[in-house]
Amino acid sequence: MDFALAGHRIVLTGGGSGIGHAAVDFLLRCGATVSTCARDLDRLRESWRDLDPETARRLHLFRCDVFANDQVGRFAFDAARAMDGIDGLVVNANSSSGGDAPKTTASQYSKDVNQNIAAAAHPIMTTLPYLRRSECPRIVIVDGVAGRTPDPALASRSSAPAALGSYTTSLSFALAKDRIGVNRVRVGVIDTPHQRERHRESGSELSYEDWLRSEAAKRRIPYKRVGTPSEVAGPIAFLLSPLSSYMTGTALDVSGGK
Ligand SMILES: NC(=O)c1ccc[n+]([C@@H]2O[C@H](COP(=O)([O-])OP(=O)(O)OC[C@H]3O[C@@H](n4cnc5c(N)ncnc54)[C@H](OP(=O)(O)O)[C@@H]3O)[C@@H](O)[C@H]2O)c1
């Protein structure tokens, strides 16, 4: 399975753990060249330490905080130079917080929405000149199904992907004239370090594995389990590939049916 991605040059934010790491791994196995970033470059390098030398030549690692515009500009420039162009961008690194609906303040909503748009808009704006020169230009945004089905316990965290969805649709219309596909992968609960952090914060006495099972039951996920990062990687690769040539402004849900 290679999705006809051999030789494609992909930029992905947040490739050091979780969904981003699994997606980079999958893209490399498809023969793509990848540039990825994280805030902690040492940890990012450590996460890719065991790569074989041939594959390692197709992976470029950078330090970049997606919320710092100057760093994002530099990352896009350095990635394009390292790969001699950019064919696809995956907006993966993001951040949001927030508690339940009545207690969440307006400023918390604004902060989460602003951050989610910024994490997409800055990397998109800076990679756009390179994408316009590509034969197969694609933008894929990773966000949560909570934008479609809000979680009242995570009110502003649900508003943020909803805003991102609207932003993506507008962008897909605007970039259609450039043949740039702009699509989203909306994930449900995926077993990543982010969920381990939620488990720690919850103070639950359940083991992490039992807590994940209880989360799946609480959310009535039809598949009765949470997802794995590698189950998100394939849909991301598909949307980056020539196989998605007539798709834009749409979303693939990877959420076990929820
Ligand atoms: N896991 C889920 O269940 C779930 C559910 C809904 C939506 N999502 C979305 O899926 C995406 C990936 O989530 P994940 O769970 O795989 O995350 P994760 O395991 O926490 O990994 C996040 C990666 O992004 C990097 N990162 C975080 N903040 C960054 C920043 N400001 N600038 C640059 N890099 C940054 C991290 O490295 P550093 O810390 O070194 O920067 C790390 O490599 C996120 O957009 C998240 O909102 C996930």
UniProtKB/TrEMBL annotation:
UniProt-listed InterPro entries: NAD(P)-bd_dom_sf, SDR, SDR_fam
SUPFAM superfamilies: NAD(P)-binding Rossmann-fold domains (SSF51735)
Domain of life where this protein originates: Bacteria
Family label: Belongs to the short-chain dehydrogenases/reductases (SDR) family.
Name the UniProt record assigns to this protein: SDR family oxidoreductase
Native species: Salininema proteolyticum
